[in-house]
């Protein structure tokens, strides 16, 4: 199978620019290969963030693979309505109290680990935390990660990202 194709842009470069804040992880580093536990192990990495703007009322946390060989990338994880008091997620974390985990592109509300096609180039897994100016996006039942991204657009005050890679 031939997987040659153009490299997808950073997905957030296609949206209106917003200020950045800091996203940290003891498990993953931008540009470096993720551990197997965050691939086939389906364990979300530890994340913590700080420096978000005053006026932040909630967070949206997600993981997106722009390099998936599909026209629309691949959503691995989305948490919406994360309370502003939550500024970290432990490795393998469930949705914090008050937050909602949306079904990812595998149909699961849990983190689905990296699984690029064997032999494909390294895929980027963009972990993002979006600081929002609302406590809740008020998403309808069954909303998808794409709907969450769309509905958050006018509410994003700032964004933090980490982009580790994975290949097999």
Describe the structure using short key phrases.
single chain, 168 residues, mainly beta, 5-stranded antiparallel beta sheet, 10 strands, globular, YbhB/YbcL family Raf kinase inhibitor-like protein, PEBP, PEBP-like_sf
Give a description of the structure:
Residues 28-47 are annotated as: Disordered. This is YbhB/YbcL family Raf kinase inhibitor-like protein. InterPro entries: PEBP, PEBP-like_sf, YbhB_YbcL/LppC-like. It comes from Kineococcus aurantiacus. This protein is mainly β. The chain has a single domain, classed as Phosphatidylethanolamine-binding Protein. It contains 1 helix and 10 strands, in the order ββββββββαββ. It has one helix at 145-152, and strands spanning 22-24, 47-50, 58-65, 74-83, 88-89, 100-101, 123-124, 126-132, 156-162, 165-166. The two termini are 15 Å apart. The relative contact order is 0.28. The model has no long low-confidence stretch (mean pLDDT 98).
